[in-house]
Design a protein that fits this description.
The protein is an alpha/beta fold. It folds into 2 domains: 3-109 and 224-298, FAD/NAD(P)-binding domain (3-Layer(bba) Sandwich); 114-221, FAD/NAD(P)-binding domain. It has helices at residues 13-24, 56-69, 129-132, 150-157, 175-183, 230-234, 271-321, and strands spanning 3-9, 29-33, 73-76, 79-83, 87-90, 95-103, 107-110, 125-126, 141-144, 164-167, 187-189, 193-199, 202-208, 213-214, 218-221, 224-227, 258-260. The strands form 4 sheets. Strands 1, 2, 3, 4, 5, 6 and 17 form a 7-stranded mixed β-sheet that branches. A 5-stranded parallel β-sheet has the order 8-15-9-10-11, covered by helices on one side. Helix 4 (150-157) links the parallel strand 9 (141-144) and strand 10. It comes from Micromonospora deserti. Pfam families: Pyr_redox_2. This is Thioredoxin reductase. One of its GO terms (molecular function) is thioredoxin-disulfide reductase (NADPH) activity.
């Protein structure tokens, strides 16, 4: 069976929670997932009530089991395109037919091209202080410049440690930025970062182009967030000035029948907020499907009602002609 009420593209927290709500609403649901979660390098997730400290893969495994328990189907594949109508095409061949589609394909973290950085991503090279700050609290920390909001990021990370350095890298600090960093006791390290020094399986230092090495226990870096929204833009969904698909509070895009949830539309969504967005999208989508079901039922019933009315009218007229 390849016909569904809803096809969910992406099996992360947003997609899984959407599928769970829809399956419990007795909708025919299929989740297509490529198996490449954004937080795969992380050992634990945090900030999720009752799931704090759980390995990310355990959350996904539990979510799959719950969705499957309500009749949802999982397809381990990649969606290569979506036709209006909707036909969801798979990389391995074939297609799924759906009345509605939720795209929850997440985003990609575009990291600075510094040797060693990507290899330590999610371990001792971090980006979210709310996800990892407590685990490295009170240790020597560094923040690597690379995006326009790097200084603000450093001031945020300062909450977790008083022993901090800011690697200016290629960023030209303004006098105001220097003043703010210095006022908070954050030491500024000038010079371009050339590479990370790795010793065994840990970060041993940050090497500068001048040859000096600074050794924080962990580095925070704000990557450039790149939405994985090619399926959405391919359908003609409206995007904002920064290239993110425009959605309403319930995840509706500008294309009727297409919803988006999680990091595919919101770069700041954490695991718990992505899951909530998936739930909100599913509830709105189910209401939309109910409206369509009612319209179809009325349309199907109307010919019968009209035929019955004609029969009753004919009986009445016949009776009158015979004086009944």
């Amino acid at each position: 069976m390849n016909e569904y009420d809803v096809v969910v593209v992406g099996g992360g927290p947003a997609g899984l929670n959407a599928a769970l709500v829809l399956a419990r609403a007795r909708r025919r649901v299929a989740v297509v997932d490529a198996g490449r979660p954004r937080n795969a390098p992380a050992t634990h997730l945090h900030g999720f009530l009752s799931r704090d400290g759980m390995p990310p893969q355990e959350l996904l495994t539990a979510g799959r089991a719950e969705v499957t328990g309500y009749g949802g189907r999982f397809i381990d594949d990649t969606v290569t395109g979506i036709e209006r109508g909707f036909r969801v095409h798979l990389a391995t061949g074939g297609a799924l037919s759906a009345r509605r589609v939720i795209v929850a394909t997440g985003l990609r973290d575009d990291l600075p091209a510094i040797p060693g950085l990507a290899e330590r991503w999610g371990r001792d090279v971090l980006h979210c202080p709310y996800c990892h700050g407590y685990e490295v609290r009170d240790r020597p920390l560094g923040v690597l410049a690379g995006t326009a909001d790097a200084v603000q990021h450093a001031l945020l990370v300062r909450q977790w440690s008083a022993d901090m350095v800011f690697f200016a890298h290629t960023h030209d600090l303004t006098p105001n930025e220097r003043e703010r960093l210095t006022a908070r006791g954050i030491r500024i390290v000038e010079g371009v970062v050339s590479r990370l020094v790795i010793d065994g399986d840990r970060l041993a230092g940050v090497e500068l182009d001048r040859g000096s090495v600074v050794a924080p226990a962990a580095i925070f870096v704000r990557p450039r967030f790149v939405p994985s929204n090619g399926l959405l833009t391919g359908l003609g969904c409206q995007v904002d000035d920064n290239g993110w698909v425009v959605i309403d509070q319930m995840g509706r895009t500008s294309v009727p029948g297409i919803w988006a949830a999680g990091n595919a539309a919101d770069p700041r969504a954490q695991v718990i907020t992505a899951a909530g967005a998936g739930s909100a999208a599913a509830i709105a989508m189910h209401a939309d499907l109910v409206d369509e079901d009612v319209q179809r039922a009325v349309a199907d019933a109307r010919p019968f009602s009209e035929a019955l009315e004609r029969q009753v009218t004919e009986v009445v007229l016949t009776g009158r002609r015979h004086g009944l």
